Automatic annotation (TrEMBL):
Protein name: TolC family protein
KW Cell inner membrane (keyword) present: no
Organism (species): Zunongwangia endophytica
Pfam families the record matches: OEP
InterPro entries the UniProt entry points to: OMP_efflux, TolC-like
Subcellular compartments: Cell outer membrane
């Protein structure tokens, strides 16, 4: 007895150590939705390019601001001749001259250009805002894609649980059939029917395992996380709150990023029209110039000569030439942008309402799937009791088991589908929990 108890204690100790090791390993190899989204936001090349486009637009804005400041140029040059430019004239005291230099500096500024400089700066600001909106869209896109990939992984894990439960059920049934066969109470074909169904389950288990590994690899590559086949998503598909109790069915078009982009296109078109009109207006510029010239080997130098100048450019032919047609084209483009906004507004409304109804349908799908699962469970229990009582055959029991497995899989799929539909609705209605480009940039720096 002491030996047996000692062996039992050793086995229990080994079991506990293995349990602790497995638990610790499981805690390390897990992934949550929030962890996946955070990693994807920091890793995404689309988001990085979006931030670079914002920086580029900001540089373009600074370039436009530079037009408010004078343009300063300096010019210097010299010429040397192998033969003299001027031979010496002794009577006049003029030495030979074989070189000439010139130094000049000019500062000029356009003081009036029909508003072109002002509108160019406003257009640069529009480009900055547009790129900020596109950066927000990139963030939203990464979040949506990450959630889809993550819930697909969870869906496959839940399907694996369904297959595992079916495998256990068939294993128990197979043992029962083996015992009945050994007792001579059934024919061998009854046992083979169960084995065939178990083989199908094992094949599905293998396929699901490989599909899950591919889904995990897809998520790992998209988020930049390390790929490990033992990693699991710890979120599960749980009961959800009815959409009507969680969200207000409102259509918030003006805050939609696609709507904002279309509105910025209108502003850009208006500014481009004003800039085209400025090509027909006079341009006034003023400036100052200072220059000095002379030779290097003779005392012939000029004093620094300074002068101020002003210029007026009047594009007379622009009133009937190509500039007139350019203005006409820009006004047409402005009308197109307005029509695009109206069209986009309608499409955004339809998209929001569609996502809402899709969410409602996804929730109803969960209810229907749960109802079917209850029926399937009741039918399986009844068929099992009837089979044990000899009231039906094995084929009816196997059919009931298959229907139960399909119903449970449908229930799992309904939950995963709802999670995705909810994310799409939140995105289209501007309720998606996403950081701004500035917040994300600060978080990455930290």
């Amino acid at each position: 007895m002491k030996t047996n108890f000692s062996n039992y204690i050793k086995k229990l100790g080994i079991f506990l150590m293995l349990t602790v090791a497995i638990t610790a390993n499981a805690q390390e190899n897990y992934i949550t939705l929030e962890k996946a989204k955070k990693a994807a936001l920091q890793y995404s090349h689309d988001i990085k390019n979006g931030n670079l486009r914002i920086e580029k637009a900001a540089a373009q804005k600074q370039e436009a601001i530079a037009n408010y400041f004078p343009t300063v140029e300096a010019l210097g040059g010299t010429v040397y001749a192998f033969d003299n430019f001027i031979d010496p004239i002794a009577l006049l005291g003029i030495p030979e001259i074989d070189n000439v230099y010139l130094a000049s500096a000019t500062a000029s500024e356009v003081v009036f250009a029909g508003g072109k400089v002002k509108n160019a700066n406003k257009l640069a600001e529009v480009q900055v805002r547009a790129n900020q909106i596109r950066a927000e869209q990139s963030i939203d896109s990464v979040i949506i894609t990450t959630e889809k990939k993550y819930w697909q992984l969870v869906q496959l894990q839940e399907q694996q649980k369904v297959i595992t439960a079916a495998k256990i059920y068939l294993a128990e049934l197979l043992k029962q059939q083996q015992d009945l066969l050994d007792a001579g109470l059934i024919a061998k074909n009854q046992l083979l029917k169960v084995k065939v169904n178990r083989s199908k389950i094992l094949l599905k288990e293998s396929k699901l395992s490989n599909t899950r590994k591919l889904a995990l690899l897809d998520l790992a590559l998209y988020t930049g996380l390390g790929y490990d086949t033992t990693m699991v998503a710890i979120d599960s598909l749980h009961q959800v709150v009815p959409p009507e109790m969680k969200y207000e069915n409102t259509v918030n078009v003006s805050e939609n990023t696609n709507y904002k982009l279309l509105d910025e296109q209108i502003q850009a078109s208006k500014l481009q029209t004003k800039m085209a009109e400025a090509n027909r207006l006079p341009q006034i510029s003023v400036g100052v110039n200072a220059n000095k010239y002379g030779t290097f080997n003779a005392d012939i130098d000029s004093d620094i000569q300074a002068l101020a100048f002003g210029a007026v450019r009047i594009p007379i032919s622009a009133w009937w030439g190509k500039e007139k047609q350019q203005i006409k084209q820009q006004k047409i483009q402005e009308k197109i942008a307005v029509n695009q906004l109206k069209k986009g507004q309608d499409q955004i409304k339809i998209g929001i309402m569609k996502s809402w109804y899709d969410l409602i349908d996804a929730y109803k799908q969960i209810d229907y799937a749960k109802e079917n699962l209850d029926y399937a469970e009741e039918n399986l229990d009844m068929q099992r009791d009837n089979y044990n009582s000899g009231l039906n055959n094995l084929s009816d029991l196997l059919d009931a088991q298959r229907l139960h497995q399909e119903a449970k899989t449908e229930w799992v799929n309904a939950f995963a589908n709802y999670q995705i539909k909810e994310t799409v609705y939140l995105y289209r209605n501007n309720q998606l929990d996403a950081p701004s480009p500035e917040e994300l940039s600060d978080a990455i720096k930290e």
